[in-house]
Design goal:
The protein is of the alpha+beta class. The protein has 13 helices and ten strands. Strands 1, 2, 3, 4, 5, 6, 7, 8, 9 and 10 form a ten-stranded mixed sheet that branches. A hairpin with a 2-residue loop joins strand 3 and strand 4. Helix 4 crosses helix 5. The protein is elongated.
């Protein structure tokens, strides 16, 4: 009798547990539906992450750093030696960026100095927005020029809007647009060991301790004639100033040179000589000697 009651008891307990679980599941379903309705009704406040922040357009100061004469260098050395030079430049730029509190190859936007990527013998750095962006970029630029002197570098810096997005399998950020292209072209016209900047960057450097040369123009591929400036840490020497002035005022200098050129300077000389030549003729036709020799004739 007892053996028949035990299975009945166990079966009743199982049925009670099933009923309780079904009730709990029903309550959970109702709570989930309430939560979903609340989420749909409330405004979505999702933290700004990389997924919804990019792509976007922001203001940035962009810097291109390149080795002077790298193509010729690759002709004169082995591929391994050329790679070693690029590797040393990459490591030097990494050190300079980190020393300035910057980031290397970031995955999100930061209002600080960042290194975007290495491009062979070229380095691409920038500062997204932020105060003092141009001064920070120029400061790191001169630190890098001091650390890496052989072979020499030249630098181009431009300020303006850039489009920030992610490309490649590593999903790191990259920058695109005219400002990036302008910085690259300015790097190409910068003299060896010098920094060329655009006019927008010069505005941002107002009040900085750096010296900015007068504007000059260059015909940049794909951009036309663009004014640019040379930025230096110390005042330029009188010789450098004279060279800059000669370049800026080339038409006036050419006019001055043509006014004093040998072809025009020598030509007045014969005219002056012809003007003086009658003087001896007057001296030879002077009547004094004639009267002296003809005086005894009456006697």
């Amino acid at each position: 009798m007892q053996q028949q009651q035990e299975p009945n008891t166990q079966r009743a307990q199982i049925e009670q547990m099933d009923s309780a679980l079904a009730e709990v599941a029903g309550i959970a379903t109702q709570l989930l539906e309430v939560a979903l309705r609340a989420c749909d009704a409330a405004p979505r406040q999702i933290p700004e992450t990389l997924e919804n922040m990019l792509p976007k357009e922001v203001f940035a100061v962009v810097m291109f750093i390149n080795i002077v004469g790298y193509t010729e260098l690759t002709r004169l050395c082995t591929a391994e030696q050329a790679f070693t030079v690029c590797k040393r430049l990459a490591e030097t730029s990494d050190s300079a960026v980190c020393a300035a509190g910057g980031l290397l190859f970031p995955h999100q936007l930061e209002s600080k100095l960042v290194k975007i990527k290495d491009i062979g013998d070229c380095q691409l750095l920038c500062v997204f927005d932020g105060s003092g962006a141009a001064q920070k970029v120029v400061q790191v630029c001169f630190a890098l020029l001091q650390r890496f002197q052989h072979p020499p570098l030249h630098v181009g810096i431009a300020a303006g809007p850039v489009f920030v997005g992610r490309s490649g399998s590593d999903r790191r950020i990259d920058i695109f647009g005219r400002t990036v292209n302008l910085a690259s072209r300015l790097e190409g016209v910068a003299p060896s060991g010098k920094v060329a900047v655009d006019t927008e960057c010069v505005k941002l450097l107002t009040g900085s301790p750096y010296f900015v040369s007068p504007a000059r123009e260059a015909l940049l591929k794909g951009l036309g004639r663009i004014p640019f400036h040379i930025v230096s840490e110390t005042p330029p020497s009188p010789t450098a100033i004279a060279k800059i002035r000669a370049m800026l005022f080339k038409p006036a200098a050419q006019l001055a040179a043509s006014a004093t050129s040998p072809s025009t300077a020598v030509s007045p000389a014969p005219v002056a000589a012809a003007a003086v030549s009658p003087a001896p003729a007057v001296a030879t036709t002077s009547p004094a000697p004639a009267s002296a020799t003809s005086a005894p004739t009456p006697t």
